[in-house]
Design a protein that fits this description.
With 390 residues, the protein is an all-alpha fold. The chain contains 18 helices and no strands. It has one domain: Growth Hormone, Chain: A (Up-down Bundle). Helix 12 packs antiparallel against helix 15 and helix 12 runs antiparallel to helix 17. This is Major facilitator superfamily (MFS) profile domain-containing protein.
Length: 390
């Protein structure tokens, strides 16, 4: 139930944040501004990692416990149940802090004018934001009433104008999230497989949380977060589609580079090289499709359908996250039944799972060609709304 309301409520902020920023920014800096909004996700990732490190280290010192191989029951002390609860509780604070500002924020002028058909209110809202006095243009009001702006999401006109771009946005986000979330969720299995963190049997439950959080936070600090800001820095130079193609391509290359010679990387002397290459897949995910799949849907669709199409794209992405989270949790299990985790059937192993993810990234690169390039164009040019009134 918690996950449902998280997706239904806070998940709705994906299309809202992207759309609000796209409609308030100018065409020369729009991509960088939307990218900067999304880059705050990296700040959240680091904050979550630091919270997990602090909480787990405090509990590990206060409530020492034997390792799993010494005592299976006592290796998870009763106090361990509070660790995840405290970590999750910290996540409520940003939501509470943003609630007030969300309530005070007006609708964007484009929505108010094009959807609500209230030119006067749109002008007043823009006057507040820009802190200048604007006057209503009567001709604009007539243009906003043009019937060519009224086609719906399920109309033939929408399919003709925006069907393929929507397919491109949904498919690339779906495929990206399969790879991105599965990478995140079985990081601990990969790090254990190459010996970067100790085997679970040699730690107690709280210490294992600390070790995993430390490894994941280090990856985020050195690769994930810089990737976000590289997108912000270069998106108006390279363009959205070029960055997305590059990101998918490099993710494919590095996935194959660590997957095919996987046995080579499990040797102790090669672990550092593995970590570097694995980190680069996260870097190019964020200096690539993880950022651009968020940015592009907020730019290429009509104002009255912009947040809806972005929401559809994001929801499709989360469907991919489900596939990645559950599918690859099972797929990454060893093929030898005697080596699988308790309660899991045999899978295809980490090596074959990584190869599969590489193929998924390559397919994502191909579907990127369905997406138009928004760089340097106004929202009206991209959506075809500039044709109205001519």
């Amino acid at each position: 139930m918690f996950r449902f309301w998280l997706g239904f409520g806070i998940g709705g902020d994906y299309p809202l944040s992207a759309t609000i920023m796209s409609e308030y920014a100018n065409k020369k800096t729009r991509g960088a501004f939307i990218g900067a909004v999304f880059a705050m996700q990296g700040v959240g990732i680091l904050a979550g990692g630091f919270v997990a490190l602090v909480v787990s280290s405090i509990f590990d010192m206060k409530f020492p416990a034997p390792t799993y191989e010494v005592d299976r029951v006592l290796s998870t002390p009763p106090q361990a149940d509070y660790v995840w609860r405290i970590i999750v509780m910290f996540g409520a604070l940003p939501a509470v802090l943003t609630y007030y500002w969300r309530m005070k924020m007006p609708e964007t002028a484009r929505y108010t004018a094009l959807v609500a058909k209230n030119i006067k209110q749109a002008t007043q809202d823009m006057s507040k934001v820009l802190q200048i006095q604007l006057e209503v243009e009567e001709r604009a009001a007539d243009i906003m009433k043009d019937p060519r702006l009224s086609y719906g999401l399920f109309s033939k006109e929408f399919a003709k104008r925006h069907g393929l771009p929507l397919l491109g946005c949904t498919t690339t986000w779906f495929l990206l999230d399969i790879a991105f979330y599965s990478q995140n969720l079985f990081q601990k299995d990969i790090f254990s497989g190459i010996g970067w963190i100790p085997k679970a049997s040699t730690m107690n439950a709280i210490h294992e949380v600390f070790k995993i959080a430390r490894a994941q936070t280090l990856i985020a600090l050195c690769s994930t977060v810089p990737g976000y800001w590289f997108t912000v820095a270069f998106i108006e130079i390279m363009g959205r589609v070029a960055i997305q193609l590059m990101g998918f391509f490099m993710m494919t290359v590095f996935m194959f580079a660590i997957a095919f010679p996987y046995d080579h990387w499990t040797k102790p002397e090669n672990r550092l090289g593995f970590v570097v290459m694995y980190s680069l897949t996260f870097f190019f995910a964020n200096f690539g499709p993880n950022a651009t799949t968020f940015i592009i849907p907020a730019e290429i669709f009509p104002a009255r359908l912009r947040s809806t199409c972005h929401g559809i794209s994001a929801a499709t992405g989360k469907a991919g996250a489900i596939v990645g989270a559950f599918g690859f949790l099972y797929a990454a299990q060893p093929q030898d039944k005697t080596k699988t985790d308790a309660g899991y059937p045999p899978g295809i192993g980490i090596k074959n799972s990584l190869i599969t993810l590489g193929v998924i990234n390559f397919v994502g690169m191909l579907f990127t060609f369905l997406v138009p390039e928004p760089k340097g164009k106004s929202l009206e040019e991209l959506s075809g709304e500039n044709e109205v009134g001519k």
